[in-house]
């Protein structure tokens, strides 16, 4: 199966909504439909801070990838961050997630992005394997800390 990536727009939300809900259910996150829509809509509307990509056919997505942008002094410029990646359970294990991440590299590089990062749960060995297959390398000297505002 090919990991076709297409930039998502507001008209794609009805097809993305069930996938976003499935991710929340899988992770045990309690977002309601309005909160999910409010969180993703700015990216679908073209915010310069990130993008949403549909994985698979746009009419029947098999997943999605949400990417945001930040600045990295260590990497010398713009850094993209994978915020979420989701592939339907029925098609997992076929290399779709690593292929999607690899497919994203060329357009990011051509747009001047210097690095692609991801935040991982230290205990999620499956995710670590997915990102390792997409050539991500750990930064053992870095641990993210967050202060909610």
Automatic annotation (TrEMBL):
Top-level division of the source organism's lineage: Bacteria
Recorded GO MF terms: acyltransferase activity, transferring groups other than amino-acyl groups
Keyword tags: Transferase
Gene3D superfamilies xref list: 3.40.630.30
The N-acetyltransferase domain, residue ranges: 3-149
Official protein name in the record: GNAT family N-acetyltransferase
Species annotation: Donghicola mangrovi
